[in-house]
Amino acid sequence: MVVPVASATRVRVIRLSGEIDASTVDLLVHAIEPHLDLTQGTIIVDLCEVTFLGTAGLRALVRAERHANRMGSKLCLVSGNTAVKRSLAVLDMLRE
C-alpha cells in the first residue's frame, strides 16, 4: 500500500492504493492517525486506487471517522472502485 499525504491549513488528503486488509491495516492506521487531531478540519481519504477493502480496513475507517467527529472534524472518503463502494455502502459510509 502506498500512502502519500497532502495538506493545507484545515484539509488533509491521504491517498491510498493497493489492498487494505488485515496484513496492511496498520499502514492505514499509521497514515490516518496523525491527522485525526485536526480540529474543525477535513480529512479526505482517497480510496480511488484501492483495489480491495477488507473488514479490517473498514473497522479502521469507522474508528477514524468517530475520532474525527469527536474532534469536530470531518472524515470524507472518496472512491471510484465499485467493490470498495459496495463495502462502504454496507456500513452506510457511502455518500454520493
From TrEMBL:
Belongs to the anti-sigma-factor antagonist family. Transmembrane segments: none annotated. InterPro entries: Anti-sigma_ant, STAS_dom, STAS_dom_sf. SUPFAM superfamilies: SpoIIaa-like. PANTHER family: ANTI-SIGMA FACTOR ANTAGONIST TM_1081-RELATED-RELATED (PTHR33495). This is Anti-sigma factor antagonist. Residues 1-96 form the STAS domain. One of its GO terms (molecular function) is anti-sigma factor antagonist activity. Pfam families: STAS.
